[in-house]
Design goal:
848 residues, alpha/beta, Rossmann fold, nine-stranded mixed sheet, 41% helix, globular
């Protein structure tokens, strides 16, 4: 098939409301004429429990690939138009029930409804266990394109055209690859990077010809690249807001009913001689979205615009935008230039308009082939290290890794906090006893269980609660709909967790988590989602009336952001990105349609600074001054008047600067950040628990020998036990984590694995062996976790308490992939390190 023919077929079926005949023609070309096998099911023929939201389902084709995988092609009609966007797990469970009944491996499904142009084209695949048992508890994973809107087929065309052009029958793996989100992520980053540089060039050109604007930038210390990044970030944020229908609402209308192409409409409706940035975007960003008004109605645009607060739409460094005419050409935003792909227009709006945006972060079993907040975070994080157009950007941590590390950190935190005698090695099988010397052999590890009478919950119960939390809702729903009948195998919340629901909920409500090299915020967002999920599951078992208040996902997330999450990064752009991700996570769950709550100010929760340098020990601290600064910071968090925010921020920053300057004069160490000062509530000496509960992240990998002489001296003066001039800076981050944890805290990093066996790693190995309690070590053993980097990595999780030689270790085999469930893989490939010394930590790959 010619490319233009493939393009026409995709546009005909995906740019309009669902049409069965066009859909069938598309499928015939996609699968190379599969076997026709038609039936229609309605009414009482709908699976029990699903008849409330499914009107009918229809099979058009059966297909078997060359490897014997059986795939059915379906169309499912939903009863309500909003079901396209909601009840996604119900849709997936319905098809899962179908696949189990028909003993199929996968399905291509069109989900549609009357009165809605938009519909969902999904690939749903059964996820088998290692034993490949097709039981009712096998989950199904869904990948989807949201289609039906004119001009939104760019991603679908990019992904599907190669299959249409290929004369060979596609495989199931090939079909799955067509729904690959990572391909979209890579493409989006490339285009985003190009837009940032084009925007930077246009701003520089404007400043070169506008002395007044140049003077304002110079006086406010505004860096052009930072301005460009923030401006593009603001525009992207608008795409998420307009997707929710929050912009362009009529004065008497409700939020959610707005213009989902709001920015494009503004651009179309501007007068010919008007400048889009100067006369529209600046007013939208710096006035409508960031200024508190009596009502949300904004006269200039004749519609409702919500006040969002949070600082995202404050002018950078509070520059005088109203009196400075910063004129950016209109064709920067939209034009008729042909792209390499053959699309019309390469402006900012032209490019962003071609993508679908979804405010819903992907769930483990649900992937939308669209730009979501996580994808945006990936693009932003890769931009951090981009210095010139050819740069490939930094690597980011894959979601599966973030998910696993977040869960393991919470599990070990709860175990350490709840149980005075936390469990040591958990037996995997009786035949392992011989291997580890439990039959009288000397000098080998004695396998014992440290579970004592004082333990409230066995660790295995905590693991089941956290690991299977996302499945518990699925199971409850499946039982309610009758799609699951064998309830004995269901991962219900363990009884011990239910009995201690109030205690666990308070621990999760008050948990303190820090990422000392926060990047795009993947770990704060990831661990926040795990905290919220766990607390949601506890809701029905809470007995304390006070704890029962404000249990919506929005309020649980807001509590986590306000009280639990902290981050630091030396790159100011990274701090802005992280805050943006956290704000987007709140936007997703904002439930009040008529009133949209202002976002919190996160300037003193996610902070720019050098994590590794702090006010040295021995410096006499003014704790009264630190406490007063902290009180002001808490006041600033909820402040929503721009002028009041500006004044209070100036007061806080002045007092912080004075405190740090005094310390600098006495110590001669150039510091710009101090944990005890900036996060005083975590280190308040009058509190019983001092320090973070969890430190988590992916710190930078950078050789210390590449630093300047002054930088090396400053780090050496911090007296890190692991410091060596031949070492890597991530070793210092490991030790930093121990310093800022409380005495029962949990530390979890993914880093380069060179520290495990090289000479420069000797000091950090000794530190781990003597001063921490390593609990989990995973060596990826050559498997490349980061697609854009060649570095070999490992995950280490340790407790900040006495070493008890209880480390579980796993060497990931080369056949491991990111689609593999990490927790299950480790459980099936578990070995133990019994000798934690300063010598190299070599993990045996022997499977036991």
């Amino acid at each position: 098939m010619k490319k233009y023919e493939a393009i026409r077929i995709i546009e005909d079926v995906f740019e309009f409301e669902f049409n069965a005949e066009k859909y069938k023609l598309f499928i015939k070309n996609l699968l190379k004429y599969p076997n026709e096998s038609h039936f229609l099911r309605t009414g009482y023929n709908i699976f029990r429990g699903f008849d409330g939201f499914i009107a009918s389902y229809e099979r058009f084709f059966k297909f078997t690939d060359l490897e014997g995988n059986e795939i059915d092609v379906l169309a499912v009609k939903l009863k309500k138009e909003f079901s396209i966007f909601h009840s996604r797990s119900k849709q997936r469970n319905f098809v899962k029930k179908y696949l189990v009944n028909k003993e199929r491996d996968a399905a291509l499904v069109a989900f549609y409804s009357d009165n809605s142009d938009e519909w969902r084209f999904s690939f749903i695949k059964m996820q088998y266990s290692l034993a490949k048992k097709k039981d009712e508890l096998t989950p199904a994973k869904r990948y989807s394109f949201l289609v039906g809107e004119k001009g939104k087929t760019h991603t679908a065309k990019t992904q599907i055209i190669p299959i249409l052009q290929n004369d060979n029958t596609p495989s199931m793996d090939g079909l799955e690859e067509a729904f690959n989100v990572e391909s979209v992520s890579d493409e989006f980053f490339r285009k985003y990077k190009d837009l940032v540089f084009r925007l930077k060039d246009k701003i520089k050109n404007e400043l070169d010809n506008n002395q007044k604007a140049k003077d304002e930038f110079d006086s406010k210390n505004i860096i052009i690249m930072e301005f460009a990044k923030k401006l593009l970030g603001q525009i992207v944020f608008i795409y998420f807001l307009q997707k929710k229908g929050w912009l362009g609402c009529k004065e008497e209308g409700s939020y959610g009913e707005g213009d989902k192409n709001f920015l494009r409409s503004l651009f179309k409706n501007k007068k010919k001689d008007e400048n889009f940035y100067n006369e529209y975007l600046e007013y939208l960003f710096y006035e409508a979205l960031s200024s508190k008004r009596v009502t949300d109605f904004y006269q200039k645009f004749n519609c409702k615009i919500p006040f969002l607060n949070g600082g995202l739409f404050d002018p950078i460094n509070f520059y005088d935008w109203k009196n400075i005419q910063l004129v950016l050409p209109n064709d920067l935003f939209s034009n008729n230039i042909k792209t390499i792909e053959g699309d019309d227009g390469n402006g900012i709006l032209d490019i962003f308009d071609r993508y679908n945006f979804t405010v819903k972060e992907d769930e483990p079993l649900e992937k939308e082939v669209a730009v979501d907040p996580e994808m945006l975070g990936k693009a932003f994080e890769r931009m951090l290290d981009v210095k010139e157009r050819k740069s490939k950007g930094a690597f980011y941590t894959p979601r599966e890794i973030v998910h696993f590390m977040s869960q393991e950190s919470i599990i070990n935190f709860l175990d350490s906090s709840l149980n005075k005698n936390a469990k040591g090695y958990e037996l995997l099988a009786e035949d392992q006893l011989d291997f580890f010397g439990n039959k009288g052999k000397q000098g080998q590890l004695d396998i014992v269980s440290h579970i004592g009478k004082e333990n409230k919950i066995q660790k295995v119960d905590i693991e089941n609660f956290i690991h299977y939390g996302e499945n518990i809702k699925e199971v409850d729903e499946a039982l309610a709909t009758g799609s699951l009948t064998d309830s004995n195998k269901n991962p219900f919340i363990p009884e011990s967790v239910i009995k201690n629901a109030d205690v666990i909920d308070v621990m999760l409500r008050d948990i303190r988590v820090c990422d000392p090299a926060v990047g795009s915020g993947a770990f704060p967002v990831g661990i926040m989602n795990e905290i919220v999920k766990a607390r949601e599951l506890l809701t029905t078992h809470i007995t304390d009336d006070k704890l029962k208040e404000n249990r919506s996902p929005y309020h649980l997330k807001l509590n986590a952001i306000d009280n639990c999450l902290y981050g630091v990064d030396i790159d100011k752009s990274a701090v802005d990105i992280c805050k943006l991700r956290l704000w987007l996570s709140l936007v997703v769950d904002e439930e009040e349609i008529n009133t949209i709550k202002p976002l919190p100010n996160l300037d003193y929760k996610i902070v720019s600074g050098n994590s590794l340098l702090k006010i040295p020990e021995g410096f006499i601290r003014d704790t009264d001054e630190e406490k007063e600064i902290n009180i002001l910071q808490r006041d600033y968090l909820e402040l929503n008047n721009r002028e009041e925010k500006r004044k209070l921020k100036e007061i806080i920053d002045t007092r912080i600067h004075k405190f740090i300057k005094y310390a600098h004069e006495l110590t001669r160490i150039k510091i710009d950040f101090d944990y005890e000062l900036m996060f005083f509530e975590v280190f308040d000496p009058l509190k019983n628990k001092i320090g973070f509960d969890i430190v988590i992240g992916n710190p930078p990998y950078y050789l210390i020998q590449k630093l300047t002489k002054i930088e090396k001296t400053d780090l050496q003066d911090q007296k890190y036990d692991s410091f060596t001039k031949a070492g890597d800076i991530y070793c210092l981050f490991y030790e930093l984590g121990s310093r800022i944890l409380n005495n029962k805290g949990i530390h979890c990093f993914i880093t380069s694995n060179k520290w495990m066996r090289t000479g420069f790693g000797k000091k950090i190995r000794k530190y781990f062996s003597e001063k921490t309690n390593p609990k989990l070590l995973i060596d990826f053993n050559g498997y490349k976790v980061f697609s854009s980097a060649t570095v070999d990595t490992n995950i280490l999780l340790y407790g900040n308490n006495e070493n008890r030689n209880e480390t579980h270790a796993c060497a990931i085999k080369p056949d491991f992939t990111q689609n593999t469930d990490i927790a299950s893989y480790i459980k099936n490939n578990n070995v133990i390190l019994s000798d934690l010394s300063e010598e190299s930590w070599i993990i045996s790959t022997k499977r036991i």
